[in-house]
Amino acid sequence: MLSKIERTFICTTFGDFKIIKMPIENIPQIYTDNSNLPLDLFVYDFKMTNDVVKTKVNLSMNMFSFLQVGKKQVHFADTSIAVNKEQSLLIKKGNSLWTELLDIENVYYCKLLFFSENKLQEFLNKHSKPTTYNKDEIPYFVIENDAYISNYLNSLSAISSISTPFTENFLSVKFEEIMLYLFNKYGERFELYLHSLISKEVSPFKKVLESNIHSNLKLEEIAFLCNMSMSTFKRNFISEYNTSPGKWLQDKRLQKAKETLEEGKLKPSDIYLDFGYNNLSNFSTAFKNKFGKSPKEI
């Protein structure tokens, strides 16, 4: 069912001028029954019958705006984009100003598909290899509407019209479908854009791991500190670093051990326990395999 959003404006008069104060709209929270964020995926049919100019929007989830009737303009911190019903937008979460204009029949309509960063990361882990991203990537991606997208939106509407305990599963399948279609349609440009949507802040998982690189903790102990099982820890590790945790951690620790020995203050027998080895022999073997020299030769 289409919904009409009523907006309230606060007007203050100064002489002959009226200043209109627009509230900040927290989206998608205002489309739900409460102030909490929806789950990982959320679909909303948005309809207006009044032009709205430069609405202040705090977008807390990445969002597809599949425009079907009307025009839309979005102002970001350092750029802006305008589209009509022939185009749709993928918009990065954050603050922006939205202008939405009616068509000649005095209506504006778009279907919104919100998705969490967790859902995006899950998709990228499955279908994309870790890659570098463009730090200057613009906060939107323009999608040219076509017959496939039109049919896709119809299928989303069909899902929304039925009541089933499997709705979330249906949406997961539909999310993967549109992502794969756009992968195929736009190729690497779209893939790189998706990677740019992932927060580049260090995750709690990486903070725990990297703060224990040079400790003597075992992988199982680090996984415990991350509040993860070993299998979950390994999956997260491979997703972040594109290599196995055992080899990565060993290489980091041996490199630090080499640097420590090169300072000339400590002997191999003084440090092997600090870098996670139970005995000097195992430490010496691993060290020589990596550097071609024994710790004593350093």
TrEMBL record:
The keyword Translocase does not apply. Keywords: DNA-binding, Transcription, Transcription regulation. It holds the Pfam family HTH_18. The keyword Magnesium does not apply. InterPro entries: ExsA-like_N, Homeodomain-like_sf, HTH_AraC. It comes from the Bacteria. Residues 203-298 form the HTH araC/xylS-type domain. PROSITE patterns: HTH_ARAC_FAMILY_2. Transmembrane segments: none annotated. GO terms for molecular function: DNA-binding transcription factor activity; sequence-specific DNA binding. Coiled coil: none annotated. This is AraC-type DNA-binding protein. It comes from Flavobacterium degerlachei.
